[in-house]
Structure formats: structure tokens, C-alpha cells
Design a protein that fits this description.
Helix 1 runs antiparallel to helix 2 (69-96). With 270 residues, the protein is of the alpha+beta class. The longest helix has 56 residues, at 3-58. It folds into two domains: 3-96, Helix Hairpins, CATH 1.10.287; 109-269, Heat Shock Protein 90, CATH 3.30.565.10. The chain has helices at residues 3-58, 69-96, 110-127, 147-163, 197-205, 222-232; strands at residues 106-108, 131-135, 143-145, 170-178, 183-190, 210-211, 217-218, 236-242, 246-254, 265-269. It has a six-stranded mixed sheet with strand order 2-4-5-9-8-10, covered by helices on one side. A two-stranded antiparallel ribbon has the order 1-3. The radius of gyration is 23 Å and the shape is globular. The protein has six helices and ten strands; from the N terminus they run H-H-E-H-E-E-H-E-E-H-E-E-H-E-E-E.
Amino acid sequence: MSNSSNAKETLKAAQTALEEAIDRQSILLNQHHQNISEIVHDIKNPLTAMIGYLSLMHNEVAGPMKNKTYAGYIKTLDTSAGRLLGICNALLDEHTQVGGTAKAKKVVDVGGLMDEIRDLFAAQAKERDIELEANVPDQFPNLEADPQDIYRAMTNLVSNALKFTPRGGKVEIQAEVDAKDNTFIMVVRDSGVGMTQEQIQQVIHTQLTTVSPHGDIGTGQGLGIVNRIVLGLGGKLDIVSTENRGTRIKMRFPRSISIQNVQQIFVHEG
């Protein structure tokens, strides 16, 4: 057999192997999407039922509540459950639509969202003796974005801050506008244990198991999720942290967020 024939046979075998590998990958990907859809669907069903019961409690269908403080708790739970249901619906849409669907941008009330997140974590902060503040200027302009993306990023950051801030510490949520760059900046600052630059890179790019001063055992996914959300929205993530002196994380977004892939992250220690 000539060298030319050998080359053709080798090329044909390589092409067949590549096609088989692509087919196997496609099958695995479809199975992965199916598994995610089923898990989310199974979460969505009891969650919808829970929201129904919260609505009944909020409307005091079975009679008035003696302590009206619980009405505020129920409202927070109802709002948070609705957010989670929205995330479930978005995941189902993403994994059932052929080719995916574009996310719908809406007007986001930044001040209202910050207050909502503060209320969500208020009980945890109180239990841990951590001061939790949300500071957004009056008449803060609205942001045009997918609300679920901003909500997911902020809740991950605040959750992490409360995990790694010892008792007696402080966590601040802030928002500001950079008029020069026409960008929104959202900030989560804590007085917690802090991180080295090496640790920051580890928790952003790998799933690093962590144990907080309060005994929380984490999978190390939170900051990585935030990083992917911010980059996917064309934003920038800025992290300043020092061991035993706390952490400040800034998310900078364009006023009207567009979905794009901007691989930019700035990490500082100091």
C-alpha cells in the first residue's frame, strides 16, 4: 500500500473517531441538560406550594396573627421564594428551549433590591451579632438588566460576607454611580477574616471547600458564580482584601447591561 493510501486511511480513521467523540459528547450534554431540568422542576413544585401557603398566611386567611412582626417575616419569605421560583423558571427555559433564549432586560430598582437583600439576611446577621447595613442614595437611578442576575450576584456576596465576618463585625451593602464612566457600582464590604491574593484566585477559579468562623462549611462556589455573572454581563469585578482586615468587592456594570463575554477581573491585596 502506498504512503498516500496509508495517509488517507489514517485520516479517515481520525475523522470517524472525531465524529464518534462528538456524538458521545452530544449525548452526555443532553443528559446533563435533562438532569438539570428534572432537578429544577422537582424544586419548583414544592416551592410553588410554599408560596401559596405564604400568601394564605400573609392574608391571615385562618385568622389574625397576634404578633404583627411575623407579617414582615412572611413578606420577606414570600419575596425570596418568588425570586427563587424566577431562577427555577429561567433555568427551565434555558435547558428546554432549542438554542436557548435571550434574557429579558427589565428596569431594576436598585435601592429596593438592596433593601430586599438586607431584609433577607437580617435574621442571620442578628443571630451572629453582625451589623448589616444597606446604603443607597435617595432617587438612585434604575438599572436596565435581568433582575435575577443582579439578585444572584448580590445574595452570593452578602452570604459570603456574613459567613466570614466574626461576631461583632459589620457588613455594608452600597451602590453608587460613576458619572465619568456612566456605570453602576455595587459594593459589599465586610470586616471579616479577609483573604490573600492566592486565596482569592483559588475561590474564583476552583471549588475550594471552606470553613467559616461560625462553622459554615462551604463548597467555595459563591465567588466563582459572581465572577461568571459579572463577566457575562460585560462588567468588571474588583476585589480588595487583606487577611484579618476584611474584604471589599465591587461589581461595576454599564448603565444598560448587554450580554457579552468580557474576560476581565481585577484583584488587589492591600
